[in-house]
## 1
Amino acid sequence: MNAPIKLTPKDFATDQEVRWCPGCGDYAILKSVLGVLPDFGVPRDKTVFVSGIGCSSRFPYYVSTYGFHTIHGRAPAIATGIKLANPELDVWLVTGDGDGLSIGGNHLLHVLRRNVNMQILLFNNEIYGLTKGQYSPTSRPGTRSPSTPYGSFDPPVIAAAFALGAGARFVARSIDTLQKHLPIVLKRAHDHIGASFVEIFQNCIVYNDAVFDDFAAKDVAAERQIHLEHGKPLLFAGGRKGLRVKPGSLALEVVNVGEGGVGVGEVLVHDETNRILATMLATMEGADFPVALGVLYCNPAASSYDAEVDRRIKKRVSPDRRAALTRMLARGATWTVS
Amino acid sequence: MSTAVAYEPERLDRRELESVVVRFAGDSGDGVQVTGAQFTQTTALAGNDLATFPDFPAEIRAPTGTTFGVSAFQINFGARDIKTVGDAPDVLVAFNPAALKVELKSLKPGGVVIADSGTFTDRNLEKAGFGDNPLTDGSLASYRLMAVDISQRTLDALKTSGLNKREALRCKNFWALGLVYWMFGRDRKPTHSWLAQKFKDRPDLGAANTAALDAGHAYGETAELPEGIEAYVIPPAAIAPGTYRNITGYEAIAFGLAAGAQLAELPLFFSSYPITPASTLLHALATMAELGVTTFQAEDEIAAACAAIGASYSGSIGVTSSSGPGVALKTEAIGLAVATELPLIVVNSQRAGPSTGMPTKTEQSDLYQAVFGRNADTHVVVLSARSPADCFEVAIEAVRLATKYMTPVILLTDGYIANAAEPWPLPKIDTLAPFPVKFRTAPEGFHPFLRDPGTLARVWAVPGTPGLEHRIGGIEKAYDSGHISYEPANHQRMTDVRVAKIAGIADDIPLQTVDSGATSGRIAVVGWGSTYGPISRAVDNVRARGGAVAHIHLRHMWPMPRNLGTLLAGYDKVLVAEMNKGQLATILRAQYLVPAESLSKVNGQPFKIAEIEAAINRLLEQ
């Protein structure tokens, strides 16, 4: 038997012209995904990319695996059907903040709750791009858009907190421009058995440019990002700052570490199996707090929904289905007319 | 399994009847449905043909004794071919005043009322809205009344049973059943056996119900009966030899889908969301894991349709099911299945609408929705089932057409067919013609929208097939490559081919036949779906009197059979009887320019034979 040929990122690219705006964050995400796909050793024919509608949802056309560009918000349901009908497929779901959290919020909730084994990449650009710039469910209050000319005022949904609330067992975050960080997060998501939720902050250069600059820009990154690592202290700003539980309260606070501040021993150690900690990290708000990136939560269940459905069918299915149908038809009361 | 044998009734002076309609009615807790099911079983064993319908209240647990809590079960049985559950009951068994209040108006003039007088207390009479007691005030004088204190007689019969009063009273339905068994000369043995089996863990309850059944029967034999109450015999019907069972529409669809999937050699994936009256199909298929059936209760109607599409994409036959409002939610997903040319079956158990309408009442008002109800030129196949047993064949046909033509198929049934039951000769699965699906596996020359030149169906290439990796979606595809295309001429061509593919199915379905009557002449009554029974009987009745009328019943609603236009043109008048405001009539006029007239009924109840007969007679007199 021949050893499987090692594929390269190029093997996973298609011949289709990529039609995102020049400078769109989606290019960087595509590059990261194409970069990690060969590492999984999953053949192209066993891989399926499913998407809904929106800029992000064009993604499947640019990956040379099987791909299904479906309808707005419904990709989680279609991906669930794909996975239930053939649990051997490696399913990736690509969605956006409007697709996944507005029109498809219900489906996203349930695919996470059921824990269907797939990777869910939510490109969050806090805006509707394909429909030309309306505010989205993740837009910050005050967002001026064609549909909110005087500024939006409804509170946004925090994607990672939504996922945790839905019962997701893997929740992670990264940024389109973090080309070293994002592939690591994608690999962790793929390794996790069950629904893996990855929120990727993605810059929309046309309708919401620089909206993440307050934490994603290079000059503030160190002060405003905390890169989570399981078992490591929650430090950022080059180790000068850390997160700890505010004494006498169930809340996080930022503390200075080292000279003039607290010892590292007082800083919380990241435990990615702790849902409460993950939720606190996901919901940190305010300029003092950093934005948590990396794996917020990873706590695999014993089995995934699709594996369980498959196991239950296999346990009950008759080796001779035709004979079983004949038997089933005659079950209960029958009578013979001669 | 039992064998139908001529059971010798104990009295020979029974009056012979050709057919009888009996309706049992009472509180939800009175065991009306169990009583009906047992009567059905023994009636089948007696060799009669029959049709049954359970009429449940909309409320899950209505307060006892209220009119909106009345549950009923109707059976029509006879020595002849039985096609409907009967226009009006000949015999009404009323377990309480509310049941009498609700059901009396449908009873035939002069019909038999058997009422449990023990329940006609002041309080129950008031709850049912009776001023005076109808059993004693003479208001039932035009009926043949048999008022018996069934409650007390049941208690008397079970004095030594060891049951407390409450438990003993719950056996009164079997006392009433025993009396009805006597009235129609039914054998009690099958019910004795059933009770023994049913209560094998509570033999005291089995014995008590058996004792109640026997006591009711003995009462009929020995008591001095009121004027007009007598015993009957209904000779066996001429029924083709074979092994039979009773089947409801939803069971037949479940079996048909499972059989169809086996004939297509595909796994069956069924996803749906609870809705009345369609949920029973989900329940039935959920018990079929033995056959490899996967069922998925989705988070909503849209997800149910989408999961089925995902499963079809993966190489199963994806099926979803709902009623009108739920199918409306699935509309966009059906459009996706049309655009991506994936097989999908959508079962619509129609109910009275619009909006929530009357969920437990039947209607046929989703024909427009099925044929036309989507954005764009989104043609799909539409089939309809005419009776509970017919659902089996139609479900198989749905799988055949969906997989052969890579298209959604909408299967229309309704709340009546789904729950009604009739005897059904067990099909022999091995004799059904298989139609195995061949997935595309060859990479040479592949693109996802390559078409079979005959059927125009695209290739079905499922994930997991090496070398056929491809992308599909709702965006228009290039005819020659399957890539995204906004080319004007290409969209014209793709729209044309999608429409032509569905239209071409007319060459792959049987020509329309005439169910009864001449193939041309004065009047054709055209129907579809569950109106089959009443139209068929009405046309037979008129023809028996020499009326020149024919019955044409459609199964393939879209596309329609090739010869339908010519066939209809051969009649002077076309009368379309349907439970909506003229939907098929409109489609027939549009398709064939025939002057179709509409006979419409939308009160949540099936047509009565008499209503259709009257309409035919009116046309004949014109």
Note: Chain B touches chain A through 76 residues (CB under 8 Å).
## 2
Amino acid sequence: MVQLLQYAKRQANALRSDQTTETTHDARPGTHLQLWFLVLLVVFPIVVAVIVSTKETGVVTSLGDLLPGSYAVENYREALVDYRFGRFMWNSLAMSLVIVVGKLIVSVFAAMAIVYYRIPYKDLVFLFILFTLLLPVPVRFIPLFQLMNDLGWSNTILAITVPYIASATTVFILRQHFLSIPTSIVETAKIDGVGPLRFMLFVLLPMSKGVLVGVSIIMFVYAWNQYLWPLIVIDSEANQVAQVGLQLLQGDVQGGQLSWSLVMAGSTLTLLPPLLLMIVFRKPLLETFSIQQK
Amino acid sequence: MSTREIFDSRIESGLLLLPTLLVSIVFLYYPTALAVRTSFFDSSFGQADEFVGLKNYLTLLTDSGYHSSLLLSVLFAAVVVIGVIAVSLYLTFLIHEVDTGQGLYLISVIWPYALPPAVGALVFLFIAHPTLGVLTGPIEALGVDVDWFNNGPQAFVVVALAAIWKQIGYNVIFMIAAMNNIPDTLTETAALDGVSGVRRLVSVYVPIMTPTLFFLVIINTIYAFFGTFAFVDLLTSGGPSNATNILIFDLYREGFSFFNFGVASTKSVVLFLVVGVLMLVQFRVTDKYSYYGG
Amino acid sequence: MSPHAEKSTEISRRNTLATTGAALAAATGLAGCLGGSSGGSGAQFSPINEELTVWHAMGGTNGETLDQIGSDFEGEFGTGVNMEFQDSYENVLTNTLSAFDSGNVSDMLQVDSLFAQQVLDTDQVRPVEEILPDNFDADIFLDNVAEFFTVDGELASLPFNNSNAIMYINRDAFEEAGLDPDDPPQTLAEVRSASERLVDQGVTQYGITWPNHVWFVETWYGFEGELLTDAENGHAGEPSELRTPDAAYDLYDWWKGMADDGLYTNPGIEAWGEATSLFIEQEAAMVLTSTASVAGLIADSEDFTVGAAPYPSISETRVGPVIGGASFYVPDGLPEERYAEIGQLLEYMAQPEVQTEWHKGSGYYPITQPSVDALREEGWFEENPMYQVALDQLQNGDASDPATKRALLGPARNVQTVIQNKSVDILNADSIDAEIEALKTEVDDVLTEYYN
């Protein structure tokens, strides 16, 4: 508030002297205003979603309809209990955790090999891994589905976790991070004759805590939001994940059922875990992303 | 980099790389190879694959509708990439400039990243539906006739807006990290020289952030081609008159609604090639203009 | 690292992979699995579970009602039933077709009438008439319902949740505009004049709306007695062309006129929820949608009274509606012992009590004569006159007219998408004739491709 007044004073003076003074580190109300406006635009959809989840049927067609309803408890209860949405969320959690832990271990291994081992054609190996970024699910899921059937993994947790265990992004990020660890430390380790396992456990991991957390968050969000693949490969409700389960909440639209509020309740529920994780771990997250610089 | 290669056991490095490579080969490359193979066949459910050689490719080559879809996708990607980067850059700049509330602003802007794409699309529909949308009234009051179920270009804009909105969070995370790394001294010098506001952003910050920005261009391109499926599916189903029929949606529909796996595989090969070429071009440009110093 | 070297090694690496992949596939015969079936009928399937599995697309409360039916069956007969929600009719179809390829199939599959032919074309389903107990009387089904699901004289699948299209009106809005809600519009022309009244007097913003779904076009054809395709809508051979009789031009002419004059609004492709919302929000005073929507509409329309009216036809001709909704198919080739239990479940679901419970819980109409009689006896239709309108419309239809049998198309989803997308094009074009020609050509191409 004090800053605001100081700024206002300065601006008033500036106007009088016909000059715009722009100081870089003072909070300008103009900036805040713009930020508020833009942030509102970005946040608006979730506000709508949450409000709709508190209504009875959730038909909102004008700004005036955006007053929160009183059905919040009812809707969330219905979603969690009647439709066993809690079950879906649990399945999503199991899947995401397995994927995160699996990917973490596997990618740390791979990144360590690429950075700290002398391997022939190392760059090609790295490229081979990176290349998979261009092979998204829609391109390969028909043969992949066949593969699941042949392996007998259809409708099991294996089908929705193992194919995700290799992660080009994670290997890339970890590699960048490892490359930023000072060579002095690495050389000391070599001189000390430290073996690879101890190197990883006592040198790499402690120095990568922030990045590991950040990368885990990214992987969790990615896994949690998977829709297409679980839709295809899981066909029993007991094993289904939350993203697909949202459809169950929508009801039989062709049969005339309208339940936007229920769907929004479910959507809000599915949004919570990744969002909370991101909020709680935002510092490591930022740290992870800053290594893209190098 | 070679001073880091403190280990050289081929077996160990092989073992470390094994999980990643194995999963990559079995679950990513192999199905893709199969998909490529299918592109030379006429394939569907319940019938034996029929080898048709290059017929599928020729069909696409002579299908003007497909050409339109291709050009449309490239245009869409361009709009989304530029849009996302521009908006995210400006937002990041604003957040960077303020002293208070940075954390709050950051969270508010980043959260769409955690949102499942399908939910994001659904909420966008709630907001922008031509007759039922919450914001439709106010927008029409501004003189714009909201009619994107019938108006192709408008539909394109709506889907692009939705796609941009969803991706802002991811970009801001990277950009804020990069911008925070810019030494304050630089900022102050610029201010003293009278370079202020947006000019400072464009002439001073952007050049320094080029590595991050080019990385984001690549990520956003992949997103625009592969990650925007949900928006097209839920908002426009590719219409009206194929105005939003981007390659990923077209190929999904070909495979999973029409069950023409052969043609769908051909389309995915083409999509993959298109994106691959774009990536290559972007890499070349990146190398030429990146500024890694400082 | 020069980009050139990169690329060439990449390419050669890619080639090696592709060749290895292809070789692998060929060697292990996996490639065949991509599309080839392991033989025709008589192929051995394995069930998913020991308990009976039913794949369905009923979400929301309808899904709950179905679950209840499943557990009631278990209580009475001791055989466990797992009702597995598959997200959408389209997903049931996809999962079913791929299950036939993989060998692990569900015991019962809820297939939308639109996709019936695709399932029949696999030759992997057993007619339910052969599975139902011998003492089961297949005649109990209402004529118009049984007609569609009977193939080669046998009941191929068990009709279950069926409906047809109907019109709902906002009675209060009608009165306000000086229209008689008890004498609703019966033809498109009358719909137009009613809409003009409603809109001109500012009662509602639009006259009418409906989801842009191919079903409505099919219903219009049906009422007009016009076949949608040749070969008796695919029931007497392979369809090869979309028919565009004069009535079709009249239809689109009217449709476009309504859109141009702001009397109709397009809620979106297959936008059932949005169309209903428009009606509930009183933006449109009339809505065309499923007969199954009655309960939902009554519940959601707190501020006004809803009335049901027969579907408006293109002209004075009213032959009959086409059936919508789904039926249960059973795969052929499961272990023989299972069929006795499946037959029990099928019979159970056709019982009057269960049909009644389903009808009351979901809004889909009762499809067996005994259940209709039972409901009538307890006065259900007097208390709920809107359900009567739906049933009357069905039973007044001429079941013997081939035009009222919903089209059996192999590439159903493809044709559906073309018609829906092109309808929007027609609405936006200056001249509908050229666009309707284009629509016909495109559908014809799809049909030819599929059947050759």
Note: The first helix of chain A runs from residue 2 to 16.
